[in-house]
Specification:
Shape: globular
Distance between the termini: 36 Å
Number of helices: 12
Mean pLDDT: 89
Order of helices and strands: HHHHHHHHHHHH
Largest sheet: none
Oligomer: single chain
Helix content: over 70%
Radius of gyration: 18 Å
Number of strands: 0
Low-confidence stretches: none
Structural class: mainly alpha
Strand content: under 5%
Amino acid sequence: MPIIRADFAAGLSLLTRLPTGWLLAPDKKIDLTRSSWCWPLIGGAIGALTGTVMVLCIRLGMPAIVATGWAIAFQLFLTGALHEDGFADTVDGFFGGRTPERRLEIMRDSRIGSYGGLALSLLMLLRAGTMTTLAAQPIHIISILATAGAFSRLSLMLPLLWLRPARADGLAHELRHLPARGLLIAMLLTALIASSLSVLGALSLFLVACLATLGLCSVAYRLIGGYTGDVLGATAIITELVVLTGASLHGFDKLPL
């Protein structure tokens, strides 16, 4: 149990802004790589809580778009917009630099550029649009958001497995060499969370999530030679968006078991 608590504390400190000191014994140290098994579980919980807020707001009589806005605000509060920040920095670097060195320099700059600002605006438009569409399926919205959260955090592991760090320092560099057992447990937990959907629906969403992650990994390798923490954040965001987009397609809720 102490090890599980320590892993959860590490995962929460990496993926959210929630306090984690109460989970750790004074002599325990955080091991981010060992905590990888619980990343999809934390992502699924964030998605489920976001969906719950949305359903409650709808039940209170709010229009779907207003309920979506409050749900997104709640999600950003939980996560501290960590992945959104990485997504914006990645877009700024990829589009704003001409060499790998310049792109990495731009990505490390805390200021947001025009490309990042436009990307964040588009992100919020797509997130709100897909979630508002899913509001017509209140029975499924919690399951879909939980699945999107789990898939997006599982996708964080793929660049760590396929690419090398683009920098010799930083948090992302410390996350290399994920334990095989942690990856296996993470995949099983993700499958368990996705099992709340139809089999065909879950497999379809998993496929598009893998394709989106592969595409981003390919671009990151070509432009900066590997991954950074910002690229990991962008991976989570893009995976979430393609999963929500797939789930919002007409007829998705009618896929067979």
